[in-house]
Amino acid sequence: MMQIIAWMTSFILMLSIAVVFIWVAVKSRVRKEYDPIVKKWYKTRKVYGTGLIILMLVVTIYTLRELPYNEPVYGATEEAKVVDVEAIQFGWDIDERELEAGEPVEFRVTGADVNHGFGIYDEDMNLIQQTQAMPDYTNKVYVTFDKPGTYEILCLEYCGAGHHMMKDEIVVK
Length: 173
Ligand code: CUA
Description:
Elements: H1 2-27, H2 34-64, E1 81-88, E2 91-94, E3 98-99, E4 104-111, E5 116-121, E6 127-133, E7 139-144, E8 149-155, E9 167-172
Parallel strand pairs: 1-4, 3-9
Antiparallel strand pairs: 1-2, 4-7, 5-6, 5-8, 8-9
The structure holds dinuclear copper ion.
């Protein structure tokens, strides 16, 4: 669902940019007095610039509120089940591939060789959680699978010739 919204939003934005370009191209044939146009658009630019700075400040502060993103947002609890994950060229070493629905899980993700990306997809291929799998470092991510099913693990970072083969599965009962 989020991916569809993201795609539709990008599409609408691309379309609006295309419309502006076409409009400019069509209007460029019309001759007009230069000075009034400059004056008008300098003013518009000031208003637009100020508005944009304010908007970006608001969005930045708003999105930083939930840092660290990792913690209770995704259902972390004291009694989360710990599952160790190690990425190796080109596969996954996951110490528990069968999990239970409704059970909070803490994935501890690391890498044996190079940087990989640990991505968990649901059955509709929506990305539900991801983190980097890095050598000499352990990233923790939390997931509570709410539906039983087969969840796919894919590598999200190009890590060599066999990157596309880095697939695995987690079965939630
Ligand atoms: Cu591992 Cu891409």
